[in-house]
Amino acid sequence: MRAGLFGSLIFVLVTGSLLALAGWGAPGAVGALFANASDHAARHDESLTSAPVLPLRRAADEPPPPPTALAAGADAVTPLTLGVVIRRQPTGGKAHVVRQTITRTSTRMHVAPDRGAEWLFERNAIDPRRVSGQMIDHASRQIVFHSDSDLRNMFGIPGWSHLLTLGVDPTLLAAMRPVPGPRTVDGVRFTRLAAASIGQGLESVWWSSDHLLPAEFVTSDNTGRTFFSVETIRSSADESLLRSPETRFPGYDAIDLADWLEDK
Amino acid sequence: MAMTWMRLRRRNLAWIGAAVVLAGLAGSATTARGGFDDRDRDDERDGGRRAKNVILFIGDGMGVSTVTATRVYSVGVAGQLVLDQFPQTALSKTYSADSITPDSAPTMSAMMTGVNTNQSVIGFTEGTEPSDFNHDGDGAAPFTLLELAKARGMRVGVVSTAEITHATPAATYSHINQRNNQNDIALQALPTDATYNRRLGRGLDILMGGGRRHFVPSGVVDEEGDTGSRTDGRNLRAEFQAAGYRYVWNRTGFNALSVQQLPVLGLFERSHMEFEHDRPTDLGTEPSIKEMTVKAIQLLEASSRRGSRGYFLHVESGRIDHAHHAGNAYRALTDAEAFDEAIGAAAQLVDLRDTLIIVSAAHSHVFNIAGFPMRPYAITSHSPGYAGTALAGNGLLDVVYDLNQATGRVEESTDRNGVPYTVLGYHNGPGYRAGARVDPRTDVFAGFGGAIPSGPAHPAYFQEAAVPMLSETHSGEDVTIYAIGPGSERVRGTVKNTHIFEVMRRALGF
Hints:
The complex is a heterodimer of chains A (264) and B (510).
Chain A: H1 2-24, H2 29-49, E1 80-90, E2 96-104, E3 108-113, E4 118-123, E5 131-137, E6 142-146, H3 148-155, H4 160-164, H5 170-173, E7 177-185, E8 188-194, E9 201-208, E10 213-221, E11 224-234, H6 245-248, E12 253-256, H7 257-263
Parallel strand pairs in A: 6-12
Antiparallel strand pairs in A: 1-2, 1-11, 2-3, 3-4, 4-5, 5-6, 7-8, 8-9, 9-10, 10-11
Chain B: H1 2-11, H2 15-31, E1 53-59, H3 64-75, E2 88-93, H4 104-113, H5 145-151, E3 155-163, H6 167-173, H7 182-188, E4 206-210, H8 236-242, E5 246-248, H9 251-255, E6 264-267, H10 289-305, E7 311-317, H11 319-326, H12 329-349, E8 355-361, E9 364-365, E10 367-369, H13 376-381, E11 401-404, E12 409-412, E13 424-429, E14 465-468, E15 474-475, E16 479-484, E17 494-496, H14 498-508
Parallel strand pairs in B: 1-7, 1-8, 2-17, 3-4, 3-7, 4-6, 5-6, 13-14
Antiparallel strand pairs in B: 2-16, 8-16, 9-15, 10-13, 11-12
Helix pairs in contact in B: 3-12, 4-6, 4-14, 10-12, 11-12
């Protein structure tokens, strides 16, 4: 015990001498050590409560364009049921063919492929340029809602106008050259328009201005060419197909695209 | 669920007392479960400053790689996001009770209650299976921090860019064994409903985000021309208003909100709110996450000055996750950037001497930054041999350019077939290319059924994925916790995400 006390005394004396030798012998030197520690704590406290600096960020990007305006006469198109064939020829690959039955009115479109999911597209009730889509996936018994932004981002569909005309942009037609010799499909008359050059985009189209409808068109891009043709036209629409999918398939789960992707 | 809520209602008879007890037990309750390392390991010493207010920001899917990519994209590789300036950080383990890689339901439940649970389960203990598939009933429903705050007389708000009934925001105010039952979750926030979560007292003060469809009957057209999806025919917009809520759905209503109008229900989109990039195209000109955050803080602060005991606010950036699932890095980064702006606005607005801000993520994604892409300034200083191609997104939204150290030339990095590849990519997801890889700059990806004008810098570019899947998945790595303000000193080390609950609880002195 005594040795312990003596040892402590020696420690204090030696420590004091060392501090003095090191220039810490001035009055308050030990206090300064503690002050430094408390400064550090204060700086730490300060860092916990100082607002971050707002960084200088990159310039904002251009937002997506607004939905495509409706073509004249879009409100007046008559209900039709179309038998459609789409042939895709990838560059250097094997062609594949899809058949679809399309039921189209001025506000709704139902697409039933020969295999896979059905789609019901609906024109927006407030802004007719916009469109939403519901994919009816029979395999998973799910109805997957796609907003207008979902359709634009995932499928490149810019609005209802694009769907109504089965993917043909009517504003492009004005720049195309008419080719003599009309044709008819099930009584509907079409005229042919051709692009000035082929290789990219819309190459040629058989077009009915009365119905805002193509009978046939060809598009191409870096990955290949797509041939679209309407084989049959019926002047009526099966209204039952245009009903809400949730009504048609009450046992199916209705979810959004984001949640459908989350579940995959 | 009905049985569960009968049990909950019986418990509520003494819930104020139970809240304090449960809060104290929350950490120790998990320690008793052998085999799970869910215990919050922080010591129980109670030191440091107390917080009057707490704001919890969660970026859904905002893993470390997303934060890094957002930094490079938004402020440059050497720049600093607001997040980067937070003084306290920790790594957070995100596993759920039954999965190495979690979904947002158990992770947000863990952060809000301090108790880990199973996939798809919100606000129940791990004895609860999704949809009660084994029919053994649900487990206990630990109190959430929001419920505890409400019990202490604090104001509470929930803001999300996802549906407001989606897993992350829902885990602040509801208890349910299946996250997909969003129509039921909406009812738990409605004070006049039989299934109302009575722990919320008089109700949530602010509830703002997307998900209007869960408040509108199926077949009924809403304010933006879309239809609802409630199968019970109820119009919850009207029922919330009858319960005293101010309902807004567009910018005009949002801008006009004042403290006198609390409580507020803001539903700005049928489903999730728009991605930040797409927001300018919205029919209702919906507010940004930054605007919602600022508005929520202003209303809660003003309300606090009128006598409440501070506030708890949760803000979720919910769509970082959605963009990743789709394999679209651009929207993930632009939403994360907007999230950082919201955090910055909050940090500027509040008094950090009395407000604790915590930022974290629900989980990460299989998203990475690949190759050895050069920094833009380095490209300039090594111009000999450089082809002159602009580096999009600070070198991020582009193919990889690297320096050939033998020649001093900057060259495109290529795969074994000589084809360039992008800096950003995914381990799995819808962005797989079925055929041979082609140059990403000329790749018109038709994976979703449409040929979209593309190239890595295009907002609609879908990054390549190695494993073909319909959707990109979450990943199981740790995420970061960032903190500033009183109580933030407890954010350190590598912890389970339940620790976030403990940090908030202790900061508030519960």
